[in-house]
Amino acid sequence: MASTGQQSPEALDDETRWRSAGDRIQTLLDASAGSGTIVRERTEQLAAELTDLYGAALQRIVAMTSESAPELVERFAADELVASLMLVHGLHPHGVERRIEDALDSVRPYLGSHGGDVALLGVVDGQDGPVVRLQFAGSCKSCPSSAVTLEFAVEDAVRAAAPEIASIEVVAASESPSGLISVDSLMSRVHPKDTVDSAGAAWRPLPEIADLDPGEVGGFLVAGVPILACRIGDDLFAYHDRCGRCEDSMAGAALHRPMGAPIGQAVLRCPRCHAHFDVVHAGAGLDDTAEPSARTHLDPIPLLRRDGVLSVAVLAEATGVT
């Protein structure tokens, strides 16, 4: 699902700094409001003037590059930071559907590792702006963790690639009378109403996960969230460190391949209640006889390589551990 390799701490710090630049700018603008309306207006005007100035310079750079080395424009568009600035100033070379398709390609390794896929059905005009229509296939369409997948993997990638969209609609694989599953209902597992601040959700770098050897299971603590990760061949998988049956920690769990099972199938056994889970297929429980949607399961955590850094998407939890 993700190749190995690490990024230097210096580069990682720089990348983190640019990713959070927008939040810092907004914080400074909000702070200026405390000095009065005039100060706030002048601060916003200054920010707009600087944005326009650098936007005009970027436009000239892109125009000159397009004439002398058009292949470089594609490289600009492939760089997340540069592409984001091109989008702000209307200079991105690709239309919204092409950008969304590229974004979905970036998350397909994660979906595929859980036996699923996602397809772009189209971008349609909505009351508040463009609406993206997606459809999940395979285990993703019925997996209890579909909300997590949509929130952190698919929606994050789509909105970063196409910030002008107004909303995302998920079309059911088997059309129901309504035909659509609202994003809000899918998000309910991730953001219980009035209890979770969506700003707490973020991609967090975890480059050390690449050090896991094939067949090895390791534990990590990211933003106060205990994570269980393992490597199967070249693929890496991450789950919340919580058994789907006894809800206890899976610390001490080991991978094994059931007798007669094909190579590549990996089962994780809870060291406490001895429940078995299919690591490759979204952590599905293997001991239950209930319908698939009612079976116990591990909770997958999105794990992707973002700008060369292996990262996981989690909601920060207050555990008292730093």
Automatic annotation (TrEMBL):
Q: Which GO terms describe its biological process?
A: iron-sulfur cluster assembly
Is Methyltransferase one of the keywords UniProt gives this record? Answer: no
Keywords for this entry?
Answer: 2Fe-2S, Iron, Iron-sulfur, Metal-binding
- PROSITE patterns from the UniProt entry: RIESKE (PS51296)
Q: Which Pfam families match?
A: NifU
Q: What does this chain do? A: May be involved in the formation or repair of [Fe-S] clusters present in iron-sulfur proteins.
Query: This protein is called what?
Result: Rieske domain-containing protein
Lineage of the species this protein comes from:
Bacteria, Bacillati, Actinomycetota, Actinomycetes, Mycobacteriales
